[in-house]
User: Fold these one by one.
Assistant:
Number 1:
Amino acid sequence: MSESSTRTVAGGFLLPECPRWHDGALWLVDMRRGSVHRLAGDASELVASFDRPSAVGFWPDGTMVVVDGTKRIVHTLHEGRVRESLDLSRLTPHLNDMVIDRNGWAYVDAFGIDENGSVGSWTAEGCIVLVTFDSAPRVVAENLVAPNGIGISPDGRTLVVGEAVNQAGARGAQLVGFTVAEDGSLSQRRIMGTIARGLGDGLCFDAEGGIWVGTAWGHEAQRFLDGEVVERISLEDRRWALACALGGPDLRTLFICTTAAAPGGDPSEFTDGRVEAVEVRVPGFAAW
């Protein structure tokens, strides 16, 4: 098993999440600042602002899609301006991460509410919503505990989501896989990896079908292959590893969104958000 150290490529964020490589640049959201950013070289550009953006992605034609988590709205944008908005509030109390497939269909995972009224708790049952933009959105997976990072394999046939679970009374997580049907439905639910410490936060596939995932308070990014951890990227100063994306000119740069540890792990107290990077052996893949 190999381990590497990272370098900082951008800072000034609070809670950076959902990095996506598109059109020669890295795009991400800062959930606490309510902003969407584009990073290209040493330049950082504020693209758009929302109440609490939780995810960003792109259609095959380049249209940007942004999830506003607390308002439960999925927006499409053109030149930074909202073109269309789709309200998902009837389906879920809180939207979270998103991945867009080669059809331009968006899979958005969503937190549930537990018996105490808490959103995204360890007992709340969440779901995955399929948004095709040309038909009514629909729930394609249910009974997921606080679903978080989400990604689709290079061949488009497997969707993986990070799920928070209780393991013998301790917090842990697992990667849950589904087979993707032609109509976007999900089936054949299965476990594709177990994270002993931390969360299955933002994740991405590489060209070999490996899965890089941020483990949050596990303080590292882990690469899973065939259900086993085969590589680790540890963060200095016990920083939280929030989400991962592969990009760069040859798609061999692993970008990791990180933030300073918060007292008690409270996301509202996160500070010093950064994008860190490290070169890896296996590249990512072109989405379309």
Note: The chain has a mean pLDDT of 91.
Number 2:
Amino acid sequence: MASGTISFGLVAIPVRLYATGESSQTVRFSMVHEKCGTKVKYRYYCPTDDELVERDEIVKGYEFAKGQFVLFSEDELKALMPEATHAIEISEFVPLEKVDPIFFEKSYYLGPDKGGAKPYRLLAETMASTGRAALARYAARGKDYLVMLRPFESGLIMQQLRYAVDVRPFAEVPIEEAKVTKAELDLARQLVDQGASDEFDPNVYTDEARGRIWELIEGKVQGEEIVAAPEEAPKAQIIDLMEALKASLGGADEKTERKPPKRATRRPAAKKKTAAKRTRARKKSAAK
């Protein structure tokens, strides 16, 4: 994708950046004219002049107030953008586990460029042995990026990070107060232990929806008709949390104590009342 240079003290390491994802696996649909089957083109329309605008008539502007723009020339835009030095300047080394994944934005593979194999290997093995990652600044494509370099398999990976101001505080998420009982916690731990693994194997997981889409598209290309699958009946919801946990465990834990149902307290009184009526009836009968 690009070339760069890692600044490690007085050591300069020439590197190349590679994409970590396979864009060819993405399902993309195009906008097509139904009448003739031709892919349509985007055109720009000005609602004030009620006319289409050609690209050479378009400039960039910043909306500083509702409907009010300040316009910039190409030279002014270039002056606004930082110089793309492609330098990856390491500022500090931190424990890898101290960088929360919420700051992760994108990832790129780093490989050594010509003449950089040995210092590249030195940096990768040093960080792997110390368990630390390198925080650095990377100036490219008119932006100043915060990145993290970390050891990955036999080399390095560069993780583009969000700046702190770009991450919303979790305190903005409304969470109601709720008390969790020890019995519920014990059952939940059993459920976690039941599905626990010591390793993450990404090959176990596949995008089933994407696979189905590709299959249907191939069928459509061959002239088959796509028919929507019947909707599944909604699953019964288990409202009681304890019952839901037990059902998730397959009913294995039947020893959990249950509260006994409340007994009716009025029934004995009703019996006494009935017995009293019978006693009065016998007395009346004897008196007659």
Note: The two ends are 114 Å apart (CA to CA).
Number 3:
Amino acid sequence: MFGLLLDGLALTAQIFIVTLIGALPLGVVVALARMSRFRVVAAIARFYISILRGTPLMLQLMAIMFGPYYLFGLQMGPDWKFWACDIGFILNYAAYFGEIYRSGIQSIPRGQYEAASVLGYSRAQTFMKIVLPQVVKRILPAMGNEIITLVKDTSLAFVLGIAEMFSQAKALAAREVSMVPYALAALIYWVFCLLIEFILNRVEKRLDYYHN
């Protein structure tokens, strides 16, 4: 039983890691587009964020999974469910990360940009050396909440027939007629979240300018 749950955990971890690798940088693009001076670009970014945050992730996964067939009559291969899962999670979390990035960037006082300009910093130097370190420190708690939520949201991959940990627990519970698989899965999710929380707390302490 525990072995099957660990097999499911491997897929859960894979979804988690792939989502972070894709969504963290894409979120930067979304944030910059959202703050763009070009109204069309900013409007597209706002629409993207509104759709992705305003509809259930489960629905988005199913739309990506079955959209190619229902819209274009395309027969996708057996591996498509994994691609659809990764794409759905990345697009969804990029919208949330983008808004967190935007709020962090806009929280920096305008005077810091002006002071950096007076000191001879270029725009790139100002962002990398002055703005970015402060933004990372300010958004880390909000980012941490989203990352921990992602651990639990990976269970939604079961709607695509992916045997992640929740799917394995569900199948085991039906086979064994027992709640024990669910309890074990809950324990594993909890430990996973504790590990992520520990890592995030260590990073936050490193960025705490007043921490002794």
Note: The chain has a mean pLDDT of 91.
Number 4:
Amino acid sequence: MKFICYLSIVTTLFVLSSSFSPPSIRLGLLKYSGGGDWYSNPTALPNLANFCNKNLHTNIDPNYETIDVGSSEIFNYSFIHMTGHGNVVFSAADADNLRLYLQSGGFLHIDDNYGMDPYVRIAMKAVFPDLEWVELPFSHEIYHKKYDFKNGLPKIHKHDGKPAQGFALIWEGRVVCYYSYETDLGDGWEDQEVHNDTEEMRKKALQMGANILQFAFEQ
């Protein structure tokens, strides 16, 4: 109950953040086991925070916090980002902790940095054994918040050449996890010189990231 109340306060701060000088929201980056590079894209979240502060008038701290999936510290963060290229392993305790976090009002954004897809699906099945991934239609509100994406999730990097897809885990009518697949939003959020993405691609990635954050806090 305390955590749910905390998230309500954070949501209010997200909407009214222009009246606060110190940062009102801090994002979390999920640390997990298995050997996957959970730490990739180090400039992604700071750039996304700065973009949202400028364009959505939020008050997000650009200095994100690394949060272990099994730590109680996760409950201090209403938005957690997860990325990587490879293996993902959740222990039973990790899965239980993440499930409780999401059921209590938390939000997880998973961004496949290319190669993590088969592993993260298994890991998240341990978190919600009874839930299936649902591909969100182009009409879903996550694609029509501050920025309008008529064709759904933008394609940022080629990867396997498949279309970009946005999947969700929905628990009791609420999207608790959004999974961006075959797009690599996080690479688009990074400093331009890291991946040499065009400014147009970076803008699309940051705008979609802003939509995800806005949706997470307003739903």
Note: Residues 2-17+25-218 form a domain with the Rossmann fold fold (CATH 3.40.50.12140).
